[in-house]
Queue: 3 jobs
Job 1
Amino acid sequence: MALPVYASPLERVWYYTFRTLCALIFLFLVAPILIVIPLSFNVEPYFSFTHKMLALDPSGYSLRWYDTLLTLGVNAPEDAVRDSTWWGMVWEQATWVKAAKNSLWIGMWATILATVLGTTAALGLSRPEMPYRRLIMALLISPMIVPIIIIGTGLFFFYSSACISPDNWLGWLLSPFLSAKGCLANSHLGIILAHATLGIPFVIITVTATLSGFDQSLIRASASLGANPRTTFFKVIMPLILPGVISGALFAFVTSFDEVVAVLFIAGPDQQTIPRQMWNGIREAISPAILAVATILVIVSIAMLATVELLRRRSERLRGVTPH
Amino acid sequence: MVDLTAAPEILRTADGRPLKSALALAQRKAKWRAFFLVLPLLAFVVLTFIVPILKMLERSVNHDGFSANAPTLVAWFNHHPATADIPEDAYAALVTDLKQMQKDKTAGAAGSRINYTVPGTISVFKSAARSAETMQPPYKDALIASNKMWADPLVWVAMRNAASAYTSDFYMVSADLKRDANDSLVRVEDNQRIYVYLFVKTFVLSIVITVACLLLAFPIAHLLAVLPMAKSNLLMILVLLPFWTSLLVRTSSWIAILQEQGIINDLMVWIGVFGEDGRVRMIYNQTGTIIVMTHILLPFMVLPLYSVMRVIPPSYARAARSLGATSWTTFRRIYLPQTLPGIAAGSLLVFILAVGYYITPALVGGADGQLISNLISFHMNKANWSMAAALAAILLAAVLLLYWLYDRLIGIDRLKLG
């Protein structure tokens, strides 16, 4: 949108005003995310820049809040030697490390569930013969639209009644995944199921978007060349829709990794996750340790965004190859 | 000559079946094959999403706290029509139940059910249950002597309505209504009207946030649409980054920016806009909720606007200019109407998401920035399950209505994520 040579002075003024305005809006979008990075290195327990930080004095900066992430909850003296036993204690006891392990575990299983079920369903939904396509699609996307507080409330009622006695064989089989009372409430499985449900719409949206550019005649070509449906799926369909599947999986993982409301409603003390820990931190005494976690999460999200962007371009290139 | 009136020979497949039925069979098979691919997910979503919501809806019309614990009085209500004057045998039935409640420690549960419609009755039930064992007939006088609320016709209307576990009382309370002594609906006193006010406030704040998002998203979506692809892809990352960043991260960084000792206030003091004592509180109130939610929902407005603006041909605007239209007229008459689908899609999406928002108002909303979701959570924490469920059901109805509208106007399969 270069400025045309015949532009009037007024249009020139407007052109530069518009550009400045846009720059300010982009600043509004990104500055609040990037600002946590320098703030997390504050040596003081404040939530703002100190004079020393603004003067770029090295003594104004420190890694103490990152250290807090490792030591909080660890039963060791401040000046303990940081040998392998100390690190072992951090791995077992540190509150944030435990939360991170829980979050990753729950996120991984929720992502696997959502991706496998979502991709299979998306394959069915993008077939032209699919009956009640619109209605089913609306239903499967709705966990993204229905407010999380409503889902949390419903899950709370459902999970507290969804119990199975460990005395019968099914209960015995499921007991490692349920709470001590044999219920879905206060169990890892309960959160994994809830998070998978929340991630499914993202998988459906990304995979159906990839499939919309998918040339259906490739399937017929593969069949005519003698491939059975399984070979066709793994050798023809999967490589082409893989970028969409991975994007969907990443979306599902981020959804689970960032989800706090359902966890607040259905989790017990054993299911402390990173967002729940942050939630408690923000509600109670807000310390820059939160900003240290936030910085780590921002870096993770930048990495994920970069991955998805690269995948999207690859997918567009792949689809550009197929003739229309 | 060919006889046109004769039935044409039926086309057959190689194995001799009529082509028409063979085709129908093949199509039916394809339909089932597609459906079986979706079936596992459908079953999963029904179990983890539909069933919980149905459970919640059931809770919103069901509360057996009173009906299960006052069987004698419930039986009396079933055999006697409502009268203005409550006879002695009703009080006798009540005292029988109160004695049992004292033994089972259920007076609180029964009282809490009545408490929803007649506030302050939990303690009345508890103290009556404590003294029920020592009461002597006539029970009517004994109960009224212990607390004159037992003569209140409103309490009796409420108990009669609570005699069945299934009730619409929680929706009645959600609409700021109550029953008078004649069992007809009236509005509650002005100072107790909280629910309707909060629904209206949630609605108004969501509109404010949607408009703010639209005003901020329109210029940058336009810029992204007209810039060359390489540059706009780069800028698009700035829109998508917030989308990928944790909500809690964004909320905590806004606290750092907006609080009284925060970055903006420090900057203002440093520049000299106001002194140390003039620091403005921009968070933990309604302003905070609006600013932070606008930031969080902005990408949901930019993406649909951008995808519409990108395909608007620039030649229309050029044609308008060449025919003598000013740039303002061109924008208003040519460009803006073409962006309307994007405006509708983005606004509806942002509004739907804003209406049910919980996390941000809970963390930065303070006292006056709370939305209806926060009240649902408040009732859940107070173990007022049915009240929370009724409010959630009303919110759900509103969101589903908007979702249906979105599907009709835009179509959910047009939803894109970056």
Job 2
Amino acid sequence: MDELLEYLGSAAPGPVQRHQLAGIDDPATMRRAGRVLADLPAGSDLRPADVAVLATCTVGPFEPLLRASLVATGIRPTLTIGEYGTFELSLAAGNLPGADPDVAVCLLDDGFFLRGDWSAVDPAALASQLDGRLGELRELVLAGLRHTSATLVLHTVPMPAALRDTVISQQARARLGSAWYGLNAALLDLADEDSRITVVDLAGELADLPVRARDERLYRYADLPYTDGALLALARQVARVVQARSGLSRKVLAVDLDNTLWGGVLGEVGMTGVQLGGLYPGNCYAELQRTVRRLREQGVILVLASKNDTAAVDEALAGHPEMVLRQEAFAVRAVNWSPKADNLRAAASTLNLAADSFVFLDDSPFERGHVAAELPGVAVVAADGDPAHVVGSLLRRGLFDVPRLTETDVKRPELYRSRALRTDFATGFGSTEDYLGALELRVVARPVTAFDVGRVAQLSARTNQFNLTGVRYDEAAVTAMSTDPAHLVASFTVTDRFGDEGIVGAAWIQRRGQVWWVLNMVLSCRVFGRGVEFAMADWIMRRAQGAGAAAVVGRYVPSTRNGVADGFWEKAGFTPSGEDGTFTVVPGTVPSCRPTWINTDEGSDGHD
Amino acid sequence: MAMTDPAPVEATVLRVLSDVLKESIGDLRAQPVLATHDWDSMASLEALSQLEDRLAVTLDLRAYHGARTITDLVELIESSANTTRRH
């Protein structure tokens, strides 16, 4: 571990070091790592995020623990800690710590809700007090949101044992417990009031961890109610929120079969001999399969990565009566004797996704080590040891977390299966244009509505390749721009003969007098190679022309990942303006750049 | 509970203090008065957390803050090892 800390002190952590950091459960080590990371060297692919912390108690060790947890998830945090005792004032005045944080964490403790004395013979009065303080917190949070576009992260609060046990009537104690659970339920419900509020369940998390929640000495001495272990649990939950908000969620789960999705080696024991369903340990594998199926239901794309005979695997997937995941659950099935790293690389290419979108679950340390060495961006999860723990291992880092599910998320596994079918369909055409023409591509463009905001913000956060300027707009920004007459935010939906891809593109445009400035344009890698980006540019130019614009200006800001978009504006008919990567066109003066094989439809307008 | 061996306790205390105070063990030995280092409340609480965790003791905060030197701290932990248990 000292080696890791030494590394962190000298260079920005890469995927390998971040994976090691994510696996550290010792709060003291994470605290040290957080201190070292305060001077994080420049470089690496960490995603920057400004995070503010305001607290009803002393922040103390939460700062280094949060920093280390954020870096472990791929974030380069700039942390700003609010002054002690300014929690309510900061929110009420909308004066959050830091200039304009992306995320503001509210560290809460029981003292905020329990003001003054209370009577042990009147639990109803205590419940009423909790309710009143919750109402005040709600008002403060909503007031704070009026002055910021930040995401506010709150958490549930564990009930102090001393509070519970002071009440000697077991009946009254149950009522008190009910009131406290009601407080936490109401805290969780705050997330429904505004999409910029996220509430993590610290109390629930602590029930599952072997750490004490509180240290009364530190509470009385320094207003530090929580132990380092509890603060690390909270820091990890917050890091999951920032990770998801920053578009770092994983999209693909590549899974092994033998001793992972079922017990035993298929080639040795045959389909009837594998452990799946029934009693332990078969029930563990069945539960893992159900868990994986639930991830798929929520948009996680499944890839099968198994060294096996294809025929035997097909037979088992189709014929085993307890099998939960059948062939059609997998977008890509790589069942062969090739190195798994090669198979994952090929699967990434087929799906047109980067390796850092992948999670790899396998029981073999050799396979995991090989994949980690060859594809360091892949998040590797161990499936060896007691199979009862594998579900927990797969889920505990929140690698697939998203701020909220969009319709496209839910459809994604089917969309990617369609992609595989499309690849099969592609054989037998004389030219690419023949193939694209036969796809019957249709692009529907429209100004975004409240229904599209989540997906468009998600595209902004997640798209790295066709991302022309790298400027990312979160939900608050998309909402604000989509309702502002000086802006136009457009979404682009693609359908073809194999199905509906959903919203795969977006453009943010600012009207500056007679000039339309394309602030950014993004396109999901899922539809690359079909000319959709040119249909988007064509739509923008026609729209600008219809509105009487004298010029449309676009910009390309090169990054390490958006080389695919290099030269886009010129190909679309724009001319370099000679200023900082900008390109200009007078709408109506250049031929349409829309490919002949794409039909563009106008969706119904919002306010535009 | 068996008597805690003083040598490992001292070694652990020095290691923890060296880490928290960012001072070499040699410098700590040369200047064992805690107040001469950055022994503020946050540093002392971080050291407390690490010491309790690594040495499996629970210290009385009053006595802990009463320790003036590293030797005092080692003696406090040694005596606590036989008289306290983790809460």
Job 3
Amino acid sequence: MQQRSTDFLSEASRAIQDSEHAHFREALGTFMPTLRDTAVEEFGGDKRFQALRLQFKAVRQHALHHLGHYLAEFAEEARSNGSQVHFARTGAELNQRVLEICAAAKAQRVIKGKSMVTEETALNAALEEAGIAVRETDLGEYIVQTAGETPSHIVGPALHKTEAEIGQQFLDQHRLGTRELNTAPEMVAEARAVLREQFLAADVGIIGANALVAETGYSMLVTNEGNGDLCANIPDTLIVCTTVDRVLPRTTDAMAMLRLLVRSTTGQPITCYTSFYGGPRRSGDTDGPRQVHFILLDNHRSEILASDYVEMLECVRCGACLNHCPVYMSAGGHAYGWVYPGPMGSILTPLLTSLEASSPLPDACTACGRCEAVCPAAIPIPDLLRDLRAEKHQQRITPRRWRWGIALHAWLVQRPRLYRLFTGLGTGFMHRIAKDGVLTRLPLAAGWLSARDLPAPAKETFLNELRRTES
Amino acid sequence: MAPSAKQSVNSKSTVALFVTCLVDLFRPSVAKAAIELLEASDLVVDVPLQQTCCGQPQYNNGDYESARRIAQQTISLLEPYDVVAVPSGSCAGMLIAHYPKLLTGEWSDRATALAAKVFELTQLLASLSNIRGPTVSMGPIAYHDSCAGLRELGIREEPRELLKQAGVEVRELDQRDVCCGFGGTFCAKMPDISAKMSDDKLESVRRTGAATLIGGDLGCLLALAGRARREGSHLQFFHVAEVLAAKAVGAGIGENEG
């Protein structure tokens, strides 16, 4: 997917001006957090959540510190189950491996479950270029794919679209004659009927994974639609595309993850389908794929593992940070300009692409800390974003006027007498030119003044007044 | 930080008031109110004249080197005191939660030692048994929790209790744990997103029916008042210290004094 993260500000402004969708996101921003917050409340409250997430964090840290060991164990177990395990250094390598598997299977039609990793590698475009038809089967992904759009949310890819828009889209794209399509259940039923035929006709199924379990060589996937299982079990060939950092030592660790992941995502205690994929069909099995491939992508994860941003690899992709982020809800997911939006995306995008290509994203944060409070992996998201800003500063990606302004301010605050003199002159001047208690024009304050008036400073600063009255 | 780790405060304690740069420049009445409230509780208040800014602009813009120097300057200035009071959750949070991790070695230890003595103003006032503020007569107010105060310092009940003791009716915002869009330099870097967040917050204030918004952080209040003025709203904005000291009369933040 073509990256447009440098357009974050203009895309966000455009999204905010589209008042219908801005209101829709506002409603989502109120509703989505209540799902998670209510679930956590029912689960024993914040105290239990805190304890569980720290416990799970320790498991993730252990797995990541011994990543080589657990990946080797996973590969060995998976191979002994009859699965094939491939490692891909880059997105292009993953796509190439998928194309090779499809070619060997003489595949013409591929069906996919939701997979952000294959969004990251732009697999659909690679398949289509090779003349292979690819159909997304997660309802949200299906809507987005057939609309020619990209996901705006890592869990709800089509959350940017209203029900009415989706209804109209289905009426236009499904040649099913004159019919009413007003309610979500009607739309779901129609999509299900259309997709069912595609499942039955597919040669290869591609799904993602929420976790890999080293001790069994299985992958775990949670869905609410069951589409993952159809992708996995109907075609003869199954390809599981995921990243190396997803590996957990034991099945019980995957269970611990489930408790946190699903509640953080949809607020359910568990999703409708929680599946483990254990390999190709065995003799006596009546269904299941005949070939199973795991493709484990690195794409900079090893670099992140060796960096100060290693905690980002603990992310479970629940989307809670998106749902709780007022910047994300204001700007909308597409403004972030790449695969991963919101707070987690503002860290991942610079790490997986480049800081320069995503330079506005680390600043798309008020450090309000709501994301960190709800993160089931207890990732210090505002701190990591600030560290990325420090890299921007060091690498001089931050615009010069900001760096100089910050440096000048720093110089001044380290000289208290001069600071008092200068701020005294400045506030006095601003106080004099203020009208009706505010300033609407002022040099060097264009950012502030473009959206709001500046309340007038005091006639005399507090410290200057104190000094005057004390002496 | 757990309250048990905090320095105990008694009437013999000398309190340094770290007024914060925004109060110093924009709203001296907050500092005056803070002094009155602390003195009313028999504390001896000193305002170190050499204070400037806590360094958040540098820290949050990733200029860690400058932020460290400013942090060291602030620590050196404030560590001789028994207690430090800060009328801002954001700046108190910088001193308490961020200085220790920004600095290393001996300076980090000094930062941790200082952090135990630093209190956000309403937390300090609420912890004093002999708080004696005036009774305040004003209409119902809505209260805005600043994010740093709420999530870094756990300030939630303290300002509400103080306001209720003073006889002020506090109305709760829906979405009260959501940011107002200020975010320090964020509001200047991303003004459209910031304005949208402020509008959502102001709408939430309107739904309470209160004509006044009170908060503990001048940054949030300046940004919200500035946006309200731009949009022609007549909401009033005061800092919680001004209300508690019965100084929330006359011109609110962003209003004409004349």
